[in-house]
Design a protein that fits this description.
With 217 residues, the chain is α+β, with helices and mostly antiparallel strands. The protein has 2 domains: 100 residues, no CATH class; 96 residues, no CATH class. The chain has a 5-stranded antiparallel beta sheet. The radius of gyration is 21 Å and the shape is globular. The N and C termini lie close together (9 Å).
Length: 217
């Protein structure tokens, strides 16, 4: 998204609440979304996106309704001529929340856009540690009726096979160890999965240090 200071983003987001009240078994509950706990730290804006749902659960021959609250941390971080958004959630929820934050901040459609890492920069992340690579998926494959290629396990020990696949397509997804003891999955559109146990703070620090500097504007 375009460069915005944390305080400018905060002004547009603070106090956002889109809730409606419903009655559930004689109790009034709130359904919808709101933004909580906004604060600035080290040129970053940190907050929580809260979503409240009513679920329908089947129990034997009954359908029971139950409220559910999901809180998702998010961070806006300044880059070179751009502002990055990090959403700590699985892909579908992260994309949904990013879309809602985009609408809250600006009336401009697509104000927050998907991040991308150029192919060459993407390869630099793992090619220096090929011995730790566990999976590679290739997209944009130039073979009729073949959309994707993949390499797993022992196949990755074949440098010639990897180079041959690079001639046929572009790397889309890779699972590797960027650091000893840390296993991640990464796509070129910046979906990061941590397979190793890390804290939220450690995950964010890694993304800011290793991923965001490689994102194209």
């Amino acid at each position: 998204m375009p460069p915005l200071a944390p305080e400018d983003i905060a002004k547009r987001m603070r106090g956002f609440s889109k809730l409606k009240r419903e009655n559930l078994a004689g109790r009034e509950i709130e359904i919808g979304s709101s933004i909580l706990d906004l604060y600035s730290e080290d040129e970053k804006l940190i907050g929580t996106f809260e979503e409240n749902f009513l679920l329908s659960l089947k129990y034997k021959d009954e359908v029971l309704r139950a409220p559910l609250t999901v809180r998702t941390p998010f961070i806006f971080a300044r880059g070179e001529g751009v502002t990055h958004l990090i959403v700590a959630a699985r892909k579908n929820r992260a994309n949904r929340i990013a879309g809602q934050l985009s609408s809250i901040i600006s009336d401009e459609k697509g104000f927050i856009q998907e991040a991308w890492i150029p192919s060459e920069e993407f390869r630099k992340l793992y090619e220096g540690r090929m011995g730790t690579v566990k999976v590679i998926f290739f997209s944009d494959v130039r073979i009729p009726n073949v959309r994707k290629l993949s390499l797993y396990g022992e196949e990755l020990a074949s440098t010639s096979l990897y180079q041959e696949y690079l001639k046929l397509g572009r790397v889309w997804y890779v699972v590797f160890e960027p650091e000893d003891g840390l296993v991640i999955g990464l796509t070129r559109n910046c979906a990061v999965t941590f397979f190793s146990r890390v804290s939220l703070e450690e995950a964010i620090a890694f993304i800011e240090r290793e991923i965001l500097p490689r994102v194209t504007e």
